[in-house]
Structure formats: C-alpha cells, structure tokens
Amino acid sequence: MCSPVEKEIRKRIVLNGKITFAEFMAVLLYHPQTGYYTSGLDHDYRRDYFTSPAAHPAFGALVAVLLSQMWESMGKPDEFHAIEVGSGDGLFARDILRYSSEISAKFKKAIRYIAIDRSANRMKRSVGDLPYDKIVSDTIPLSGITGCVFSNELIDSFPVRRFEFTDGKINEIFVTVVDGIITEHIDVPVYPRVDNSEEISSLQLKEGSRIEVNTGIKPWLTQVGRCLDEGFLLTMDYGYESKEHQLKTNNRGTIQTYYKHMSGSSPYDRIGLKDITAHVDFPSIISEGISQGIRPVSFLTQRQFLSSLGIEIWMNRIRTINVGNTVRQANMMAMRELINPDGLGGFRVLVQEKKLSNKSPVSFDSSTLQTQLHQLPIPLMRSEHISLISARYPHIGFLDEELQ
Hints:
The chain is of the alpha/beta class. The chain is about 35% helix and about 25% strand. The protein has a domain at about 45-160 and about 215-240 and about 280-390: Rossmann fold (3-Layer(aba) Sandwich).
C-alpha cells in the first residue's frame, strides 16, 4: 500500500513522465500534507536519527557562549537577535536560552531569540515557557536584523539535483516509474541549467561518478543577505571541503537515508517513512556568501569548534561534581559523541560575517573564554535529551528517572 507521499510522487511522474531528484526530494520531505518534516503524521526525527542538540545540552550551551562572544565583538548592542532556522521542536532553543542566563545578565537581556520552522506540526511539539518568538515559514520573513542567523542540520535537507558522468558526458539522474516500481532514469539534463554546471564540467570525473548540486544554497544566502543587516551566519552540518574531496572519498554521491537509526538504504524504499539528505556543499555556501557580502570567518570541524570553546574543560570537571555514577557516565558519553571525529565531531561548522570587518573579531580560543568555562556551571542532560548510554546498555532502565 502506497504512503500518501508516494502517491503524490507517482501522480507527478504520470503527468510528466519523470521528475528531477530535487522535486522528488522536495515532495518527500516538504509537501504540505504528506512531507516527512511537514505532515501531521507522527514523524519524530529521534526515532530515525539524533542531532547534536538532542545528544547533550553542552552543544546548545557552547553555542550560547559563542553567541555571547559575537554580541561582545559587536560592541554589546542593546538588542542581539538569535535567529534559528529549522528549529523543529525547540530543544536547541531551550538549551541556548537556559544557558544564556548563566553567562551574563546583560547578554540574557539583550538576546532576542526567534525560532523559524516550515512545519507547524514540529513546532507544536515545543514544550516549556522560555521567552522566544516562533514563526512558521519556509523563508526568513525578517529584515534589518543585528545578531546571528544560525542553523543545525538544515542545509543537508535542501533538495538536490543529481548528475552522473557516463559515456564521457554529464547526464542527470531523474526519478520515474518502470513496471510499477519507482526507480532512477538517466537522461540529458533539463533546464534551467544549474549554477554549478561549469564547475562540474571542470572536475576530473570518472565513468560512473555521481555528484549532487544543492539547488537551495543560492536562494538561502539571498534570504540571509536580506535578513541580516549586520552580524554573523553560523552553519553547522555535515559536508565536504570541496567537490574534489567528496569525489575522492565517495564518487557515487552523498545521498543518505535514515530510518530507525539505520542509514544507507535506497531513497526509493519506504517512501515517506524516512529522512533523506545530501552532504552540504560548503564551498558553494562560502562563494555565494561572498557575492552577498557575507565573508567567511572560520571553517572548522565540530570537534575543533567545540574544543576551541572549551568542551574538554566541562568533560574534566564533570568527573568531580556530586552526581550519581550513572548520570556522570551518561553525560560523559554524550559529550564524547559530540566531538567523536567519526561521528558528530566530524561535522563542519562555518562562521561568516556581514559588515563587521572593522570590529573586533569573534574569538574561539582565548584565555578569557577558558577561564569563563571553568567558572560557568556544567549543563547536564535532562529527560528530553536522548540517552545514548541507555541505548547502548538497555539494562540501565532507571537512567531517565535520574536525569533532571
């Protein structure tokens, strides 16, 4: 029996004979009635995968520390906007705002948090009474912002067009139906031509190599440029340094699916029941940002990023605080996962700025910051965070009762 989203995809294929992979991905994830992220179905992402904010509140707390550094570098304006795009159920927002009050009363007073998500259903899952504004939108309907626009694992879900190098030329991978089964169809690329077509042609592609082009990056940076008058853009996601690096490590493309914490199955199986993503083309974000007046400041792995902010200080301090051993081990395991180079720690963190070249740069590694981390309280997991230790050791069934 077809899922509602599969029925919609089949209908579009009947009308057109084939659709681009970008259209297939957009319908699968974002169709207003049937999309994985936007439907009224109970698509709790945590049943399929977990994110850094869900793993441990230290992630949100250290981003809060970074936002305070940004605020200071801008001269401590009376109002500092923190615009989270793709906010989902609001867990990241809650962790950032909870910890902002620990950092500085002046910063807490200055920060104005706005959470944006295209799914009203995901936002309905938000709990708590922390003061922040929520906007349901598939764009950034704001302008004149001073502060930081940021996202975590957002751009990997932008629809991509897929291409394959066959018979000495670049062809496009479409989605069609053959003998009643949804499958791929390789054909001449359709118009409009993608912005990266010349760049793709210049790559040393081997027969059978596949590559994606993220069609949403240019409109995304255009939106950010219109929204952000002065401040920062912070992008946290998994991706690659260059297309050459991607092809060297994986020349069959980077499309990934997630279903019940299993990755790697075909995007044409269990349509509508699983997430689908592609690695982020960070070089395109940097180059397109420059064209919008948004200059790169730093490009780090998540391990480097969190280490420079001082996560190891908290990991060392947690050994000495007065909590039960199970809680201590659960928190330490989750913090280690945030910086695991083969997991979340291998994600990328890109910081860009707009109109701030004449001001003090934001600091990621200073003695003042390290001293601050020694003095600030250690954020501990709450029951709304995913218990990795319980998942790995299911006999520890009492952990949730011990979490705050």
